[in-house]
Task: inverse folding
C-alpha cells in the first residue's frame, strides 16, 4: 500500500487488467485460500463479486448468504480461491448459517482472512474483528461502505485503525468498485508474507485463566495434532459449550481441521 | 479409539476443574474486554464532523415504512402496485411472444415434421414444442417485470422493514420474526425460501417456517392467479377498472396466503411444534439507492432465465405425457378422458372439476404448467371442434373471449375460478420444493407433513367455499 492510486484509476478496468484475471468458479488448484468474513450485510458478497467476476445474488438484508460460495482469481501469477461466508456477529454463535462461517474461519485454515466491516457501524463490527484477530495472524480489514460513512459525515481514520488492530486496513466502497485494487494488492502481500501482521490481542486474561488455557491447549493438541485453533477450543471448553464438548467426545473436532469438512457442514 | 475416548474425558475433566477454579465470571469478563477494546478503538478512529446534519432520509423513510399505523397499509399498497404493474405490463408482450411462437413458428414446425410419422410429429410438435412455447409466452413477461421490481425493493433495503412490520404478528403466532424474510424469498421460489430458513436458529421455528413457506405464492403460481383473475374477476368490472380489480383479486389471494401462514404457524406451535417464540435482533440496514443496471442483470439472468429454464425443462415431459394420455385410447375414450370422468364427481362436489384435479397431478413437477394443462384437457374432454389444433394439443387462444367461450363450454362458473385460485394457493409444494425440504430437514416425516397438510387444507377450503356459495345462491 505504498503507492496511492487515484480513484479514477481504481475503477478503470485497464488499471489492474494486467494483474487480475477473474476466474469465476473455474478453480481446480490454488496457491492461497482467502476467506471473506464479517458482520451480516456489510457487503461481503459484493466484494466477492468484484474480485471473482461472479454474480452472486446480493441483497440489502442481513442473512442473504446462508451457505458459503467459492470463486477464484489470479493475481500476480498466484491463484487465489475466495470463499464468501455467511455473515456472523460473533464466533460464539450457534445458528446453522453462522456455524458455516465460524467453522471455516476457525478450522478451514484460510491463508488470509478478509474481514469486511461496515464503516458506519464500526464499533459493533470491531467486536467480530477482535475475535477473529484472536485466532489468526494473517488478516486484512476491508473498511467497506466508506461512501455511506462520508454521506453521514463520518470520518474514519484508517491508518490509526490499522495501527490499533495491527493488520492492514483498506478503505473501500465495493458497490462502486472503489478500493478493490488496493484490497487485492494487500491480500497478495499478506498471503506472500511481505506484510507481517501483529494483530491486536485481548490483554485482560488473568494469570489464572492463562495458566488454565495453556494446560488445556496442551492436552487438546495431544489428542488432535494439527488442529488449527486449539486455544479457541480450550476457551469454549472452559465456557462449557455443548457443541464443542460433543465434537470433542465424538472426535468430530479433528475432522473440522480438514478442508472438506466445512462443505459437509454447509451441505 | 479407546485411548482417544479416555483422552477426551480427561480433557473434559480438567476443563471442568479449571472452570471451577477461574470462576464463572470468565466468559463475561472476556466479552467485556472485547467490547471495551472495540469501543475504545472506534472512539479513537471515528470522527463525526460537527456539521448540522442534512435532512436524514433514512430516519424519515423509516418513520413511514415501519410506522405502527401506516407501515402495514403502505406495505400492502406497494405490493398491490407491484402486482398491478406486472399484470398491466405483461399482457401485451405475452400476446406478442405467443403470436410468434404459436401462430407463426408452430405451423412451420408442423410442416417440417410432416415427413415424420404422425405420432412422432404430434408428440414432438403438438406436445413438447407447444408446452414449452406456452410456458415461455405466459411466464417470461410477468417474471421479467416482477423479479426486477422485487429485487429493486430488496436492494433498496425494504425487506428487513417488512420483517420488522410483521414481527409482532409472527411472534403472536408462535413463529420466528425472520420468517417474514423467508416468506419473501418464497414469493420468488419456495425452494429458495426453504433454503433461506437457515437464518432461523431454533429448529422448531425453522420447521414452522419450512411448512408454511408454501403459502407464499411462488412464480410458478403467479401466472395462474393473474390469468384467472383477469379473465373471471376483472371482467366483472367496467373495462377501465379491470386491471385494478384483477390486481385486487391477486392481492386478496396473497393476503389470504399471509393469513394462512399466521394461522398455520399458530396451530403448529400449539400442537406438534409446541414452544415459545425466541427473541432475536434484526438490523435495519440503511436504505441504499438500488443499482438499476446490476439489478436488471442479476434478476433477469439469474432469476428469470433460471426459473424459466426450469419451467421449460418440466413442461417438455409434461407436454409429452398430456399428448400421450389424450391420444392413447382404452375402449372408446382416451386415458385422460377416463381419469377426468373418474375425478369429476369429487371435483364438482368441492367446486372444482376433474380436469383441474388431473392437471394438478400432471403439474406436480412444476406449478407453471397448470393452466396450459387445464386448457388442453378441457378441449379434449369436450371434443370441441375448431378450437386449438386437435386432440392433445396445448395452445394459446387468441383473446380472452376465446378463453371464456372455452371455460363456459367446460361448465366453469365464477365459483370454479375462485376455487382454482384458492387451490393454486393452498396445495402441495412442487417436487423441487419437496426435495429441498427433505434435504434441509433430512426427515421423511416433515416432508410428508409439508406435502399433505396444504392438500388437506386446500380441499377443505374449496369444499367450504363451494358449500357457502351454493347456500347463498340457493337463497338468492
Result:
Amino acid at each position: 500500500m505504498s503507492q496511492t492510486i487515484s480513484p479514477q484509476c481504481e475503477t478503470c478496468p485497464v488499471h489492474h487488467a494486467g494483474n487480475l484475471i477473474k476466474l469465476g468458479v473455474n478453480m481446480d488448484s490454488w496457491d492461497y485460500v482467502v476467506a471473506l468474513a464479517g458482520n451480516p450485510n456489510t457487503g461481503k458478497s459484493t466484494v466477492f463479486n468484484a474480485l471473482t467476476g461472479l454474480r452472486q445474488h446480493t441483497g440489502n438484508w442481513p442473512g442473504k448468504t446462508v451457505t458459503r460460495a467459492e470463486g477464484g482469481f489470479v493475481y500476480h501469477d498466484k491463484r487465489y480461491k475466495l470463499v464468501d461466508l455467511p455473515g456472523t456477529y460473533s464466533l460464539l454463535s450457534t445458528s446453522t448459517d453462522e456455524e458455516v462461517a465460524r467453522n471455516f474461519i476457525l478450522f478451514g485454515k484460510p491463508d488470509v482472512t478478509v474481514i469486511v466491516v461496515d464503516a458506519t457501524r464500526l464499533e459493533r463490527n470491531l467486536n467480530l474483528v477482535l475475535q477473529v484477530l484472536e485466532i489468526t495472524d494473517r488478516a486484512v480489514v476491508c473498511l467497506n461502505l466508506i461512501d455511506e460513512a462520508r454521506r453521514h459525515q463520518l470520518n474514519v481514520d484508517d491508518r490509526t485503525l490499522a495501527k490499533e488492530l495491527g493488520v492492514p486496513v483498506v478503505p473501500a466502497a465495493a458497490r462502486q468498485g472503489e478500493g478493490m485494487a488496493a484490497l487485492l494488492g494487500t491480500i497478495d502481500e499478506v498471503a506472500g508474507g511481505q506484510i507481517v501482521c501483529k494483530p491486536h490481542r485481548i490483554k485482560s486474561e488473568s494469570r489464572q485463566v492463562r495458566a488454565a488455557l495453556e494446560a488445556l491447549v496442551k492436552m487438546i493438541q495431544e489428542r488432535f495434532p494439527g488442529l488449527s485453533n486449539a486455544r479457541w477450543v480450550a476457551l469454549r471448553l472452559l465456557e462449557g459449550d455443548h457443541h464443542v464438548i460433543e465434537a470433542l467426545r465424538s472426535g468430530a473436532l479433528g475432522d473440522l481441521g480438514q478442508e472438506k469438512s466445512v462443505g459437509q457442514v454447509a451441505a | 479409539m479407546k485411548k482417544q475416548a479416555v483422552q477426551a474425558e480427561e480433557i473434559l475433566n480438567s476443563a471442568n476443574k479449571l472452570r471451577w477454579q477461574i470462576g464463572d465470571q470468565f466468559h463475561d469478563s472476556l466479552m467485556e474486554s472485547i467490547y471495551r477494546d472495540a469501543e475504545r478503538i472506534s472512539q479513537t478512529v471515528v470522527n463525526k464532523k460537527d456539521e448540522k446534519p442534512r435532512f436524514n432520509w433514512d430516519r424519515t423513510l423509516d418513520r413511514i415504512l415501519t410506522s405502527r399505523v401506516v407501515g402495514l397499509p403502505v406495505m400492502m399498497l406497494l405490493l398491490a402496485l407491484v402486482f398491478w404493474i406486472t399484470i398491466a405490463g405483461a399482457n401485451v408482450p405475452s400476446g406478442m411472444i405467443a403470436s410468434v411462437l404459436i401462430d407463426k413458428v408452430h405451423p412451420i414446425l408442423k410442416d417440417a415434421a410432416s415427413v415424420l410419422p404422425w405420432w412422432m410429429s404430434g408428440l414432438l410438435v403438438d406436445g413438447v414444442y407447444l408446452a414449452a412455447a406456452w410456458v415461455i409466452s405466459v411466464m417470461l413477461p410477468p417474471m421479467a417485470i416482477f423479479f426486477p421490481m422485487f429485487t429493486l425493493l430488496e436492494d433498496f433495503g425494504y425487506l428487513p422493514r417488512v420483517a420488522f412490520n410483521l414481527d409482532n404478528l409472527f411472534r403472536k403466532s408462535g413463529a420466528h420474526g425472520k420468517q417474514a424474510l423467508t416468506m419473501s424469498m418464497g414469493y420468488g421460489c419456495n425452494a429458495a425460501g426453504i433454503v433461506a430458513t437457515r437464518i432461523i436458529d431454533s429448529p422448531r421455528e425453522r420447521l414452522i417456517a419450512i411448512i408454511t413457506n408454501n403459502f407464499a405464492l411462488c412464480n410458478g403460481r403467479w401466472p395462474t392467479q393473474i390469468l384467472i383473475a383477469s379473465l373471471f374477476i376483472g371482467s366483472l368490472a367496467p373495462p377501465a377498472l379491470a386491471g385494478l380489480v384483477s390486481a385486487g383479486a391477486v392481492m386478496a389471494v396473497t393476503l389470504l396466503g399471509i393469513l394462512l401462514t399466521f394461522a398455520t404457524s399458530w396451530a403448529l406451535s400449539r400442537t406438534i411444534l409446541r414452544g415459545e417464540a425466541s427473541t432475536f435482533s434484526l438490523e435495519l440496514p440503511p436504505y441504499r439507492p438500488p443499482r438499476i443496471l446490476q439489478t436488471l442483470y442479476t434478476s433477469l439472468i439469474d432469476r428469470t432465465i433460471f426459473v424459466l429454464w426450469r419451467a421449460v425443462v418440466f413442461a417438455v415431459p409434461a407436454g409429452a405425457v398430456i399428448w400421450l394420455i389424450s391420444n392413447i385410447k382404452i375402449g372408446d375414450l382416451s386415458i385422460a378422458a377416463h381419469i377426468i370422468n373418474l375425478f369429476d364427481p369429487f371435483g364438482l362436489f368441492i367446486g372444482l372439476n376433474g380436469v383441474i384435479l388431473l392437471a394438478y397431478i400432471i403439474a406436480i413437477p412444476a406449478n407453471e404448467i397448470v393452466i396450459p394443462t387445464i386448457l388442453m384437457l378441457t378441449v379434449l374432454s369436450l371434443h370441441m371442434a375448431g378450437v386449438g389444433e386437435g386432440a392433445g394439443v396445448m395452445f394459446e387462444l387468441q383473446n380472452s373471449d376465446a378463453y371464456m367461450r372455452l371455460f363456459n363450454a367446460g361448465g366453469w362458473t365464477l365459483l370454479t375460478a375462485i376455487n382454482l385460485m384458492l387451490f393454486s394457493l393452498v396445495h402441495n409444494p412442487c417436487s423441487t420444493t419437496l426435495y429441498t425440504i427433505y434435504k434441509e430437514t433430512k426427515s421423511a416425516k416433515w416432508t410428508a407433513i409439508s406435502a399433505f397438510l396444504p392438500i388437506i387444507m386446500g380441499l377443505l377450503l374449496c369444499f367450504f367455499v363451494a358449500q357457502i356459495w351454493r347456500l347463498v345462491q340457493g337463497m338468492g
Remarks:
- Chain A has 13 helices and eight strands.
- The mean pLDDT of chain A is 78.
- The radius of gyration of chain A is 18 Å.
